[in-house]
Amino acid sequence: xxxxxxxxxxxxxxxxxxxxxxxxxxxxxxxxxxxxxxxxxxxxxxxxxxxxxxxxxxxxxxxxxxxxxxxxxxxxxxxxxxxxxxxxxxxxxxxxxxxxxxxxxxxxxxxxxxxxxxxxxxxxxxxxxxxxxxxxxxxxxxxxxxxxxxxxxxxxxxxxxxxxxxxxxxxxxxxxxxxxxxxxxxxxxxxxxxxxxxxxxxxxxxxxxxxxxxxxxxxxxxxxxxxxxxxxxxxxxxxxxxxxxxxxxxxxxxxxxxxxxxxxxxxxxxxxxxxxxxxxxxxxxxxxxxxxxxxxxxxxxxxxxxxxxxxxxxxxxxxxxxxxxxxxxxxxxxxxxxxxxxxxxxx
Length: 347
Ligand SMILES: [Zn+2]
Ligand SMILES: [Zn+2]
Ligand SMILES: [Zn+2]
Description:
GIY-YIG nuclease family protein; alpha+beta; binds zinc ion; elongated; disordered N terminus; four-stranded mixed sheet
């Protein structure tokens, strides 16, 4: 209960109480102390030598609070008030709570994040809203580094944890595996997966899931050699319109919502499904199609930002008017694959 009360939101800095009294920044080590104690003025003058030390460190002492050992420092830089122990003032460079908060808000903005509130359980962490709309708990120092190095979400060096997990799940699902969790050997490039067709669990490199090179240690099936399908999916997003998704999957039907992360409020149905002899051929065919569509009809490719938050996989989505072109190209590609099959065996 008291934790909630002490929770400080960065969005509402000038609440009604600030009209009657100034905001007081409390260092994290003292945040367990009830607010009323800081509002209690300690009677007694401020020793002139304390004032000299404060001035040399960029502050002026505007009062004594709580007990004989605490002072209120006003920052010369930003005018904010911060409580400190007189001992800290004498022996160290006190940190202005106002300047610190401003720096954190600016760092967040540089990354494209919004700092929502600091984490009351750990003073080094804050809660942020990311550009994709998800919230994440991040270390202030990490955001500071991201701001300095100019790496915003979506660029190399930062993944939204929620979006990234969804992406990994959907990559796995496309190849017949279910993402279970982190690698038991703690290698960041590996994850634990379950093979959908036989139930076997094993660790696999993320890169091998993406390229379909992962083979099952139990049943020996490799996704790239198992049959697959190319599908054309139509879906309707409320207030946004109709869209077309072209993709491939071993089992499009059962994977539809899970793989694409399409919520129940979105109407979705398959327009076409083309069986492919192997996952490898399906992948190759799909890639070739996307390449041609992007090159010939760039205006009909839906930008990722348009659907973020609605579906997990926001690439390879097109406007409905591209449908006849997809049909035409698909037919050509499939015929080309049939005639150039690896052997003369019948289908
Ligand atoms: Zn300041
Ligand atoms: Zn996200
Ligand atoms: Zn298996």
